[in-house]
Every structure is written in C-alpha cells, then in structure tokens.
C-alpha cells in the first residue's frame, strides 16, 4: 500500500484535529469562487425539473429511467466533461404501470388511495368482488378458506395500528464520539428475530395465495394521511397482482368486513413488463486530472438516478443526481484543472439493493466477497455520495474512518457560512457509499436535515417536487463541489481504514 495511505486503528478514534487539521491547506480563493458560481449561476433547478416534472418516477430499467440516463448524458456532454459514457450491466426486466384504479362500490362509493407494488402482475381486467379479510391468518389457520380464494380480492394483513410518525434525528453540531459504537441490545435482537418470523409467515401466506390463484392482494401501509411507502420486486411468472392501500382506507374496509357489513370493491391493475433489453446502466463523466504524478488518481461524486414509481422521485433521488451533476458543472465552468481526476457516477438500481454501485466497485476496484483487489483500488482517494433527502447539508459522516477527521475538520471553517459544521463519527448504511466502504475505500455520505424524509417522502407517493427546497439543493451542490475539489488538490490520498475482514 502506498505511503500516502494512512491507516489508523480504533485505538486513536478520539484523535480529533488540532495540530493535524491545521496543517491541511485550503484554497480559500477557489472555495469562494465555487460558492459564487454555484449560488449565482446554478443550473441545478433545470436538472431537477426535468428529472421530476418532465420524466417523473424512474423505476430501474423502465423507459422513464432510460430517458433520464440519456438526458443526463446529453447535459454532461454539452458541458464539455470528459469521458462521458454508459456502463451496461444485466439487471432483468423493467416494469411500467399503464392503468390503475381501486374503488369501493358498496355500501357507498369511495375512490380509494392506493398504488401497485413495482413489478405487480396485471389483474384480469376490472375485478369486482366482495373482499376477503385474512387479517393475521396463516396457511395453517386458514381452515376451510383454502380452495375458495381463486380470483378473490384479499386483504392480507390485520388492521394497521402502528405508523411511522417521526424522522431519525440528525446529529448536533457539537456531536463527538465518546466511546465505541454500542453493541446490539438483547431487546434489539429479540425485535429483529420477531421481524424475521413475521416476514417468513407473510411469505408463506403469499405463496399459498399464489397457489390458490387469488385475484389481487391488498395490504395496508405504515404511512399516515394517505402516505404510501411503495416498493416491490420482480416475482417472476405466476406472480399475483399486489396493491398497497392507504392505512385509512384499508382499515375502513377491514372494519366493515369484521362487522359483517357487505362491501364491494373494484380493482384494476394494468402493467407492462419491459423485457426488450435486460440491461441497465451507470452513467460516468469526468474532469481529467492534470498532475503528471497523480492525475490518474480519482475522487468520485455520485448519486443514484433511479427511483420508485409511485411519485416523481424528487427527494430520492432526483435532488441528489441533480446536485452531483451540478457539482461537476460548477468545477468545469470555473475552468478547474484538478490534480486528480474528478469523476461523476449516476448509479442504476440503487433501490433494488445498491446494484449499480456494487457492480461498478466489483468491476473497477475489487470484490468485497473475497477482498480480491484490482490495481485501480490503489488510486481512488474518496467517494462522496448524495442520497439522504433534500435538506441542507450539515456535515459528513466519517464512516468510522477516524484518520480522515483532521482533514475534514480543516475544511469545515470555510463552510461554516453554509451551515456545514458537523463531523459524525459513525458508519451509516443504506446507500451507494457502502459499496466502496465494503472494499476498504473511503466512501462518505453527507449529514442532512431530515425534512420528513423518513416519515413522509422516502419511497412514497409523497416524494414530490413540493417537498424540495431550492436553496437547499443549491447549497448541496456547492458543498459537494468543494469536497471534491479539496480531495482532488491535496498532496496525499485521503486516509483509509483497514480492509474489512472476510470470513471464509
């Protein structure tokens, strides 16, 4: 490993800045130029508008996702970025919703709030029937219901009583680690085991209903006030139509059935599978490095371009994609000649399990399953990810890479006027930086204001343009550009953690 890598262990996790941070040079003039370009001539709104209002939801491998990729490629080429290209990899078939409706016809008419799961099968036309409430039944307790569910509208869950009401708190500006991360508690392990048993029971019930040939499956959601958290997966041939219904409307129907009140519902799902091309794409663009010694080293900025299908994917992740693109536009517009190459990546299939970033890391840097590393692993300084909603950036998670803390702390004073003041020590997961972290590369996620991200917009039908604050995405792009620039210009690569252990 080159001497530029500084790998420190947990024994010095509380070493914070002071003398080391003070030695980190910061080009204050360039930082102010980046702020001016990003705030006075921002193009992030144009990008965001096209991804959301024009294209809308961008489910992986759908025509809308492909349209978004081509639009982004055209803009990057138009700005004069280097090496703009697509990297294809096999994903599977896409899915497009063509028509959907769900209504209560009896005992009174009521249009209902719902949305099909991604990759749901279609109903056989408009299905009109009295719904069947299974509630908390299992295949073992269904009794004489078995054999009677062919073509039925089935409510598969009990009345929804628990809801998502609060977001996770963001760390305070003065937050600092005081000890090792806490170990999982017995209560947490018990809850995890209970969730696993529940998933198993629900999977068994779904498999039984599939064998029965049910007409459509309905389930309630954990959102309130008509909020639907909707995802999905391709369940292959023979899958059943599947719909998420707002908790308020699901509970209404379930109560009436339980009280013996006759209910009639009408449901129609018309969907099309996109199987003409089983590939999807990551989009890559660069500002080439100019230093003869370290120009082939790389700093990356990235975000996922795909979204779920029930809304316009505004906070997840049109804002992040627009910000990542705008960060490179700012640097290109300023004529920056970075020492290292600054590379943009817009990932595909993040929502299906970080598939795009994981495929990229495996192809270019190494396999996390074996820690078999490729030569380019030695040349990546860091990766900065944008995918945590639309609130203002307040800092950056260190991902337990405590050796990098003095570097980032030296950068923060020039960002205080933008509200960026916090270094969060712990590892965070759930998005594309973890693909890099899995092979020991410095991958980071920014700390953001939540803005009801978890309680309202994340993977929901409320992930719409109105939830995004323009001033926030402008600030995000400026901060991302500064982090990328600083990383590209420093003498050494960013410090790294030790390679993760692989159990064989």
Category from helices, strands and their pairing: alpha/beta
Residue-averaged pLDDT: 90
Characterize the main sheet: 8 strands, mixed
Task: Note the gap between the termini.
Answer: 23 Å
CATH architecture of the largest domain: 3-Layer(aba) Sandwich
Work out the strand percent: 15-25%
Number of domains: 2
Shape: elongated
CATH topology of the largest domain: Aminopeptidase
Radius of gyration: 25 Å
**CATH class value of the largest domain:** Alpha Beta
What does this structure look like?
- By secondary structure, the protein is of the alpha/beta class.
- The protein has two domains: 25-92 and 276-489, Zn peptidases (Aminopeptidase); 97-274, Glucose Oxidase, domain 1.
- The chain is 30% helix and 20% strand.
- The strands form four sheets. An eight-stranded mixed β-sheet has the order 1-11-13-12-16-19-17-18, sandwiched between helices.
- The longest helix has 27 residues, at 186-212.
- The radius of gyration is 25 Å and the shape is elongated.
List its salient traits.
Aminopeptidase; 504 residues; disordered N terminus; 5-stranded mixed β-sheet; 19 strands; 8-stranded mixed β-sheet; single chain; alpha/beta; Glucose Oxidase, domain 1
What topology emerges from the helices and strands here?
Elements: H1 19-22, H2 28-40, H3 44-55, H4 63-78, E1 82-90, E2 94-106, E3 110-111, E4 114-116, E5 127-129, E6 132-133, E7 153-155, H5 186-212, E8 216-220, E9 242-245, H6 247-258, E10 264-274, E11 279-287, E12 298-304, H7 314-333, E13 341-347, H8 355-364, E14 366-367, E15 372-373, E16 380-385, E17 393-397, H9 405-411, E18 422-424, H10 433-437, E19 443-448, H11 453-457, H12 470-489
Parallel strand pairs: 6-7, 7-8, 8-9, 12-13, 12-16, 16-19, 17-18
Antiparallel strand pairs: 1-11, 2-3, 2-10, 4-9, 5-10, 11-13, 14-15, 17-19
Helix pairs in contact: 2-12, 3-4, 3-7, 7-12
